[in-house]
Known about the structure:
27 strands, about 30% helix, 9 helices, seven-stranded antiparallel beta sheet, single chain
Amino acid sequence: xxxxxxxxxxxxxxxxxxxxxxxxxxxxxxxxxxxxxxxxxxxxxxxxxxxxxxxxxxxxxxxxxxxxxxxxxxxxxxxxxxxxxxxxxxxxxxxxxxxxxxxxxxxxxxxxxxxxxxxxxxxxxxxxxxxxxxxxxxxxxxxxxxxxxxxxxxxxxxxxxxxxxxxxxxxxxxxxxxxxxxxxxxxxxxxxxxxxxxxxxxxxxxxxxxxxxxxxxxxxxxxxxxxxxxxxxxxxxxxxxxxxxxxxxxxxxxxxxxxxxxxxxxxxxxxxxxxxxxxxxxxxxxxxxxxxxxxxxxxxxxxxxxxxxxxxxxxxxxxxxxxxxxxxxxxxxxxxxxxxxxxxxxxxxxxxxxxxxxxxxxxxxxxxxxxxxxxxxxxxxxxxxxxxxxxxxxxxxxxxxxxxxxxxxxxxxxxxxxxxxxxxxxxxxxxxxxxxxxxxxxxxxxxxxxxxxxxxxxxxxxxxxxxxxxxxxxxxxxxxxxxxxxxxxxxxxxxxxxxxxxxxxxxxxxxxxxxxxxxxxxxxxxxxxxxxxxxxxxxxxxxxxxxxxxxxxxxxxxxxxxxxxxxxxxxxxxxxxxxxxxxxxxxxxxxxxxxxxxxxxxxxxxxxxx
Length: 610
């Protein structure tokens, strides 16, 4: 028995050595002399490359009818050529690369759909560049014309590629493996030996061995034809199909998504309506009717932190206890929302995304009347929750002269005060250990009557005056819980109450298609793994009667690409067949070795037995 690789000496049915095929002609599906035919075809469903287009119209006949017929053939030919180019793997990869490049500006340049304020700030700071970016659609990359065009072309390319390949692959699955080529010794992996067993017996043994190894096999003439590795093309098709699913899911999610944020102080609640959000953005096809009807109240926020060590200040517990109900008459339920453990209600998910403090302050006028008493949310500036905010008294206040006026206080809050100097104060720990509230007061007009939107956490002092003490210095004070800052000239007072509440920031999202995108991603990974690591290959076993009446057995294998595993696999198969149809030894040859002994060489092409 002998086996060879391409480029090594092979043996034919007579046991004589044959010359190897030239290396320049060795590739899947084509033999050195072009004799493989159907045996080397359809190892892949990849489309065949088309030639460079020439004149599709052919010879143009005279007259208007000839011109119309020629024009029709030209248009049809060019249309087919462009379609084949669009649906080729090369163009699909190019479009995928362009889509990846196009997404880069969306992550580096402020996007109007995400943060319109940053976009306007960029335009103000870069007048020329901002105009160019605006015309190119770089402030709204994912909804721009050029990004949508690449996206749609990639989608069409994948569909145009996968549909014909799927039908072709289905046809291959329904058909039988092709018959053996005339000269098996031309194939990359080859083995041959002579045996006393009858050809029919050899073919029967080979058929059983191949089917046991999960080959699709059948007897075709004087040979057994078998094929294996269909999962390679299945994985390839699954990969392309998964990309289409991901594209559809991404497009669906972008068109129908919604995302809103809401800051809620302990004791307050939220109803899932558009007016309840602090900020809200959605896809182009989203409707307010798509909002899931529910509401919830924040009962308590709990945050604990590492007290010592290198991780001092790192959150250990970070959760919000809420009660919620679904629909107008839904039963109230209790739950706890944690980081990365959202509350799921229908298609909506409620995430806990931020936290801070809301010191309670009470403002009184000169007569002692309470005109404002509410918790004031402060926005954190660092990991130790050093915070700032604004206190706005818009209605009900009158100054010492009895005139209506508005008050504003720039506030700076720290949960754990660090130092007692006159400079900037900061927090040294995120928990409430030594809270201090610093205030600076203003009076006049807050500008809220102009109808222009304002940031509730910032104070517009353009139409206000600062309070000054008896020495003419700006009135400002640092208050501990329970302390009061008195305003000059009988203007009233502001008290930092001992009750300090906490707030939690929630993000409510509806992202349809995310589950499909996840399924598509996992399918793409498995499909790609199958297409990379599974090899499609064919094996033939021919058994014929030689001129001297002895059966000549030939085995050969062909893969989609050259691989060292193919000769090894063919060697294993040849050993199994050889056990049932052993080599015939001539009378002048030495006696056969002990059948129980280890064979001197494997059938993987390392030696020859004749």
